[in-house]
Amino acid sequence: MAHMHHHHNEECSHEHHHHHDCCCSHEHHHDEGCAHEHHHEHESACCAHGHHHHHHHHHEGSLRQKLWLIGATVVLLLIAVWIEHNMNLTTWQLLLVYLVPYLLIGHETLKEAAEGIAHGDAFNEHFLMSVATIGALAIGFLPGAETEFPEAVFVMLFFQIGELFEGYAEGKSRDSIAHLMDIRPDVAHVEQSSPAEVTDMAPEAVAVGSIIVVRPGEKIPLDGVIVEGSTSLNTVALTGESVPRDVALGDEVVSGCVNLSGVVRVRTIKSFGESTVSKIISLVEHASENKSKSETFIARFARVYTPIVVFAAIALALLPPLFSGHFVESFPTWLYRALLFLVVSCPCALVISVPLTFFGGIGGASRKGILIKGANYMDVLAKVGTVVFDKTGTLTVGQFAVTAVHPGEHCHSSSSDETAQQALSPQQVQQQAEANRRLLHLAAHVEHFSTHPIGAALRDAFPEEATDGCHVSNVEEIAGQGIRAQVGDDVVCVGNTKMMDAVGAHWHDCSHVGTIIHVAINGEYAGHIVINDQLKADSAQAIEQLKAAGVERTVMLTGDRQEVADNVAHKLALDEWHAALLPNQKVEHVERLLAEKPEGKNLAFVGDGINDAPVLARADVGIAMGGLGSDAAIEAADVVLMDDKPTKLALAINLARRTIGIARQNVAFAIGVKIAVLVLATFGLATMWMAVFADVGVTVLAVLNAMRALKV
Fold it and tell me: How distant, in Å, are the alpha carbons of 196, 224, 298, 510 from that of 249?
């Protein structure tokens, strides 16, 4: 068994080489790109996760800054209004007074609008706001027109309040995630001149060929070879294989695995940058680059709406005066109406209510233990058509338990088990139960001191072992085979087939799926115990709910063995599954599924291991299990299910659909009222304040509607 694993692992680290050599050179460049990107489109959540913690602080700071800005603007606006009413200033002087609050609150929007134009992406929401407010500022200089300075400030203020809500919603969910982060090992214990002297160093600083000490419970910081000690490693995070891997002298170990039982001394064979963990981390960072950035709802809306409004306003200013034949005389009137049209068309109600709706939806979901990291993922979630699962820790519990006990020489296959049971007399049933109990009893005693997960599973299956007073002595662990101990007068061996061969017991195989633990008493074969990872209680229900929600394709990708995968897939009625995959093969399968998915439908990947992180980042929406999930997976995901229940998945999809529905109602309502006011404005029947009032009224109603999204 150990041998097989070892081989698999070699193959694995070898595979990593190929895959990553190319990535490493870009690493630095990618970071720069990301930080740069952060300044432009702050909606795109791309960079916000993935890069270390300075973004989090930056994020909180920017919210606090925004609050101050909004507060200061309100004060300055009030002062400006007071000045306008109490002092007899000319239009120019008044403009200068109002420019103070206007530029304070609007400078960022104006800058974004200018950048948008420079990048050839002119029609964004910032541009719409800028045009409308500059129009409002300019309108007062037309002959015989009223000044509309306060409105310009108002419009910007509304926009920033909407942005504040959106930023706050994203920041909230990101904070809940930040503290779950890191597969990166934090420290390496490096031996100096003698084994007694150990210095703690950052893994980056450790030279190749150093000897490091890894204690139980710690992550292995660098790839290396064991020079002393033996232990079992939890490799679930890296390979997805649920069975811990036993390693002893001379075996290669991979960074990122957790050392479970013994202290080992390891000679490092790679620097940190070349080690498995840092390669996987860089895989994640690069995968998020080619993810389709789903834009925020508002940004998509603005892209269609802005050009229509801008061109309509230009037409309104020029066409009627041209056709009237008195261009010079009638132009100021129509220019006023065109500018009014622009200001009225500024969608404040939307700009506040849509982010608020998403904020409510994100808040409502987080009450249910679903963290959604940004409003744009709501959109993606609502249209999920393919769901890809990892197995271990996602559909299964990720912990071992005894699933069957077969004492004696003969093995019952699972099907004949049931029938055999009925044919037995009550005494035989009693005898069988006794035999089962004895086998578990002995195995649990032998494993009493074992720190191995298999030992823990055997002890859990027979909790009385600690108190029944049997005498256990001469416990010895045989690396790569199992444990031998004396229980009372019997010598009991608990281990794999190699151990049975070593003591000359005639073992036989079992038809059950799982890890088979054989037991021999005094060299005679006593039977075997089947240990397996169990399905989560709600996995089957989760798949049914997804089907009910209209998900067409459910796929399972796992690093585990084929027979384990088949067993799980049949029980859950999955559409397709692939087993024994390495991390980069999972990415390949996801790429294929992404290419095959129907138009307008998205692919969600659900996983919890480090090996899932690249796939989580690559899928349209990555969903991580937050309770047991590895930190890298939680960081790379767009949605995190905090309590590991797969049934939360269908709930998340339904919540997202409902939120989008509410946002759509708000859009329809706001645009309806807008059009009414615009029609009036075109015929010169609407005043600027009527427009602003309509907007405020709509905004209030839309905000109340948005609050429904909070209730789950």
Answer: 20, 11, 59, 31
pLDDT digits (tens, 9 = 90+) for 486-506: 888 889 999 988 889 988 888
Provide the b/e sequence for 417-435 (b: ≥16 CB within 10 Å): eeeeeeeeeeeeeeebeeb
C-alpha to C-alpha distance for 233 and 217, rounded to whole angstroms? 10
Phi, psi of 357 (to 5 degrees): -60, -45
Task: Name the one residue in this structure whose structure tokens are 């005066």.
Answer: 321
pLDDT tens-digit readout, 180-189: 334 566 788 8
542 Cβ contact list (under 8 Å, min separation 6): 645, 646, 647, 649, 650
β partners of residue 190? 199, 212
Q: At what angle do helices 688-707 and 348-367 cross, to 10 degrees?
A: 10
Q: How many Cα neighbours within 13 Å face the side chain of 174? A: 24
Tokens matching residue 142? 């037309």
Instruction: Name the nearest CA neighbour of 533 among 395, 393, 389, 398.
Output: 398
Contact 232, 247 (CB under 8 A): yes
CB contact at 8 A, 559 and 582:
yes
Question: Residue 219 is which amino acid?
Answer: K
- Selection from 187, 183, 189, 200 nearest residue 265 by Cα: 189
How far apart CA 139 and CA 83 sit, in angstroms, is 20
Nearest C-alpha neighbor of 131 from the set 157, 160, 106, 98: 106
CA distance 388 to 445: 41
Residue the block writes with tokens 């109990």: 437
Under DSSP, is residue 85 helix (H, G, I), strand (E, B) or coil? helix
Half-sphere exposure of 9 (CA within 13 A, CB side): 27
The span from the CA of 116 to the CA of 302, in Å, is: 13
Q: Beta-carbon neighbour count of residue 115 at 10 Å?
A: 15
Query: DSSP secondary-structure letter at 219?
Result: B
**Cβ(195)–Cβ(179) below 8 Å:** no
Q: Which amino acid is at 352?
A: I
* pLDDT tens digits along 380-392: 899 999 999 988 8
Q: What tokens were used for 122?
A: 């002119």
- Whole-number pLDDT of residue 295: 59
Contact yes or no for 645/538 (Cβ under 8 A): yes
Distance (Å, whole) CA 13 – CA 285: 19
Instruction: Say if pTM beats, i.e. exceeds, 0.85.
Output: no
| pLDDT tens by residue, 580-589 | 888 788 889 9
The answer to whether the CB of 313 falls within 8 A of the CB of 124 is no
Pairwise CA distance, residues 105 & 155, whole Å: 10
- The b/e string for 669-689 (b: 16+ C-beta within 10 A; e otherwise) is bbbebbeebbebbbeeebebe
Which residues are the active-site residues?
390
Q: How far apart are CA 379 and CA 294, in angstroms?
A: 8
Q: Which of 578, 691, 551 is nearest to 240 (CA)?
A: 578
> Contact 624/284 with Cβ under 8 angstroms?
no
Query: What CA–CA distances, in Å, run from 168 to 174, 360, 373, 411, 447?
Result: 10, 11, 11, 61, 51
User: What does the block give as tokens for 267?
Assistant: 């000679």
Query: What is the rounded distance in angstroms from the CA atom of residue 573 to the CA atom of residue 571?
Result: 6
Is the Cα torsion angle 267, 270, 273, 278 positive or negative in sign?
Answer: negative
